[in-house]
Design goal:
heterodimer, A: 293 residues, alpha/beta, five-stranded parallel sheet, three-stranded antiparallel sheet, 10 helices, 10 strands, 43% helix, B: 512 residues, 15 helices, 15% strand, globular
């Protein structure tokens, strides 16, 4: 006799909690073949704003943590992900229609990407900062520091990439101490929700990573125009077309109003790079007088 | 002669050999522009110095094409060490003609000769010397092996430090291997033209640097030109916002150095003599026409009265007047329009209830002048505490605890600079961590150095100028730094498509 399965209810991840969309809206997630897989929450404008509030509240603690600590916390994500490989492989297989080997390879790479970025936490400032040999009796140091709250759109509709794409966007943003509101791949959001569960049981403080599912074309304009968002990662926005025919260029135009830092879309999944970390940092230069002896 | 009054010690403009009319500098030659001609005047006397050509969109196009040609045929093919040698030559020529440049700058801008002679011009030379040495060391700039130049850079600079801003823009661009079209501010084009003569003396290949003069629309034609790869702008936040919109959707890289409303924080244990000098330097240097000026003074409450008394005494010794006089501390406001803006905002401050004090200065009959002014009893809600005045006007606020100082300092959409005055190093370092500002000066203010990055957080703009960071703004990494195994599922690097160095313009970029 076969057992009746217990399907999961998919929700958002905001401020370390798993709310449904306040709008009550959901949308159907289907497999590559078109079979029903789940109903995912369709985030609203209010959800996006709540996520920004949660992200802002988390900046102080996360940016204030030591770099060593952030590295440990990010490595811990990799550990937990490794422990739940099977679940991710299974979800990716069903929602992307790829083979078990392909899904496995994606999960492996996603774990390795977390590990790679974890190692940068206490090094990027050494590489991207420097002591400046200025003329005169001054001590002068330039240090990169996180820019604050980053709104991001994960790569959309990349074959065999719903988890890897998401991770490749989130990890470089948070490694320096930024917090993030990220919109998952609209068509394949299952691994985003499951990753939220990993994050919730890891040591990542609530609000550091906030995950929204739903229409990126609908959510991103609100985030791009939000005055309390410091930077915009449009990595996955290349294929976005809004209901009124807007594209990622409109998002960049909206971001210009508050002079947000913007990372332009890329094709497919971005390869890990130090540049992705430095795209979301500010350089602070400190001058101090030296006394004359 | 009363105490502290000195006989005038003016520099003579006779050392200048100015032409009556200046054209554009395109492809290594001075050429006539196709637009109207306008006068550049001395803000201290309102006398006409020379007339300047106004570049049309067609002139801008000619300049960009000259820059592209120079980039393709000469500059991008030249060895880094040769590029560096040209920059060294320019630096030396600036030093040789330092006096002439200082006089011309004071005459045209209205700033005191003491500042052009001791600050602006020496820094211009230093900027070229610093970046000259980078030209053959680009692989050490922090972008991995073989970083590439971007192509043609469109640069628009303001009137407050005409020659220095030109150096900040041109030196790193050329060192990185880019060619340049630069537009000086409408009211301060003169020294850019003298600089063009220096480029001719240095025998810089034609088209590597092109200078187009004119008002806002000339700048707009330049930054929106299809064939530029990089846009760099220093100026107001509003214009920066407009440029960010114009660049949206293109492949153009953008650096913006915009406005500020810097907090200058004075604790009760501050070295008081130095702090008073630092406050004066922070806001009255260059008539307060400094984007990083310390225009909001945050004083710990228990020393407020002492600081204000000493500040007033010190300001009463400042001499305002002829910019060419070596005794002058405060020169002329750059233009009638700017003077009007300073007056309007100051009146607003008074109307909103802040208390105004103005140093007792004799205002010359001709020219544009504004005596150093302090507002006390200012609250964070007052316009003079929020809006950039860009003039010799200081707003004073108080605080009790470091936490309150941080909250007030960060309570602004800007984030360019900040100052801290305290003898306690540990408190200074803790405060620095919390301040949202790109440059923090502790027990000093308004220091600039080519080796040191400068730039803002938030609405003070993107990117940094100066130092290794300023060089990186004109370079593109050529490779990826993660192990290949981490890209199992990824697609080829996005810049593979950018093999041709021409930027792609998308439909909406210029529309809005």
């Amino acid at each position: 006799m076969s057992r009746l399965t217990v399907p999961k209810t998919y929700k958002l991840y905001i401020g370390g909690k798993f709310p449904r969309s306040e709008s009550g809206r959901t949308y159907e997630v289907v497999s590559a073949k078109g079979d029903f897989l789940a109903n995912a929450a369709k985030a609203s404008r209010k959800d996006a704003r709540d996520a920004v509030v949660a992200a802002r509240a988390a900046v102080c603690g996360w940016a204030g943590a030591t770099a060593y600590n952030r590295g440990q916390v990010i490595y811990r994500i990799a550990e937990l992900l490794e422990g739940r490989r099977a679940q991710f492989v299974d979800e990716i297989q069903s929602s992307e229609g790829v083979t078990a080997a392909q899904a496995s390879a994606q999960v492996d790479t996603a774990i390795d990407v977390w590990v790679w970025y974890a190692g940068w936490a206490d090094k990027y400032a050494q590489v991207a900062g420097n002591a400046n040999p200025v003329s005169g009796p001054y001590f002068n140091l330039s240090v990169p520091e996180p820019t604050g709250v980053v709104a991001a759109v994960a790569p959309q509709g990349v074959a065999s990439g719903s988890l890897l794409g998401l991770v490749s966007v989130i990890a470089p943003i948070v490694v320096s101490g930024n917090t993030v509101v990220v919109v998952a791949d609209e068509a394949a959001p299952l691994s985003a929700i499951s990753l939220s569960e990993v994050l919730a049981t890891s040591d990542v403080p609530g609000g550091v990573i906030n995950m929204l599912t739903g229409s990126a074309a609908e959510i991103m304009p609100w985030l791009a125009a939000h005055a309390d968002v410091n930077a915009l990662d449009l990595t996955g926005a290349g294929s976005l077309e809004g209901a009124k025919g807007e594209s990622w260029v409109d998002l960049q135009l909206a971001a210009a109003e508050t002079l947000k830092r913007v990372v332009a879309p890329v094709a497919g999944i971005p390869r890990p790079a130090l540049e992705r970390i430095t795209a979301f940092v500010e350089t602070k230069t400190v001058w101090h007088t030296k006394s004359m002896l | 002669m009363a105490f502290l009054e000195y006989a005038a010690a003016p520099e003579s403009p006779s050392i200048l050999n100015l032409k009556a009319q200046y054209g554009l500098f395109i492809d290594g030659e001075f050429v006539d522009g196709h637009g109207d001609v306008f006068d550049t005047i001395s803000p201290a006397t309102e006398e006409v110095i020379a007339s300047i050509a106004q570049a049309t969109a067609g002139d801008v196009d000619t300049a960009v094409r000259a820059a592209r040609r120079a980039y393709e045929t000469v500059w991008s093919r030249m060895s880094g060490s040769d590029r560096g040698k040209y920059l060294f030559r320019i630096a030396r020529l600036v030093q040789e003609r330092a006096r002439e440049l200082a006089v011309a700058e004071s005459l045209d801008n209205g700033k005191p000769i003491r500042e052009t002679r001791d600050v602006d011009v020496p820094l211009v030379a230093a900027w070229f010397f610093y970046y000259a040495g980078w030209a053959d060391k680009l692989e050490h700039a922090g972008l991995g092996p073989n970083p590439r130049a971007l192509g043609v850079a469109a640069q628009v600079i303001p009137w407050n430090f005409p020659l220095l801003m030109l150096a900040w823009k041109i030196a790193p661009a050329l060192a990185a291997g880019n060619t340049v079209v630069i537009k000086p501010a409408e009211t301060t084009s003169l020294t850019a033209m003298l600089f063009a003569e220096i480029l001719q003396q240095a025998d810089l290949p034609a088209g590597v640097v092109n200078i187009v003069t004119g008002p806002g629309p000339t700048g707009q034609a330049l930054v929106t030109h299809d064939d530029v790869n990089k846009v760099a702008f220093t100026g107001s936040t509003n214009v920066g916002r407009m440029i960010a919109r114009q660049v949206a959707g293109t492949q153009k890289r953008l650096t913006l150095e915009l406005g500020g409303k810097a907090a200058n924080i004075v604790f009760d244990d501050a070295p008081m003599d130095q702090a008073i000098e630092g406050i004066v330097n922070g806001i009255f240097f260059n008539q307060g026409h400094v984007c990083c000026a310390g225009s909001r003074l945050l004083v710990q409450e228990n020393v407020h009265d002492e600081v204000i008394d000493r500040l007033k005494a010190r300001l009463s010794t400042l001499r305002m007047g002829d910019p060419l006089d070596k005794n002058t501390d405060i020169g002329a406001i750059n233009s009638a329009a700017q003077l009007e803006r300073i007056r309007t905002l100051s009146d607003t401050g008074e109307n909103e209830g802040a208390e105004r004090w103005t140093a007792d200065c004799r205002i010359p009959d001709k020219g544009f002048w504004f005596a150093p002014t302090i507002f006390t009893k200012v609250s964070a809600a007052h316009a003079i505490a929020r809006e950039e005045i860009f003039g010799p006007v200081l707003s004073v606020l108080t605080f009790r605890t470091p936490a309150e100082a941080i909250t007030k300092a960060n309570n602004t959409p800007y984030g360019l600079s900040a100052g801290i005055w305290t003898e306690k190093g540990s408190r200074m370092l803790a405060l620095v961590d919390q301040l949202k500002a790109g440059v923090v000066w502790a027990n000093t203010f308004n220091r600039f150095d080519p080796a040191s990055p400068f730039g803002g957080y938030k609405e003070s703009g993107y990117g940094r100028e100066g130092g290794r960071h300023g060089l990186a703004a004109y370079l593109e990494a050529s490779g990826w730094d993660a192990p290949a195994a981490l890209s199992a599922a990824s697609t080829p690097p996005a810049d593979a498509k950018r093999a041709t160095r021409k930027p792609k313009q998308t439909r909406k970029a210029v529309a809005k």
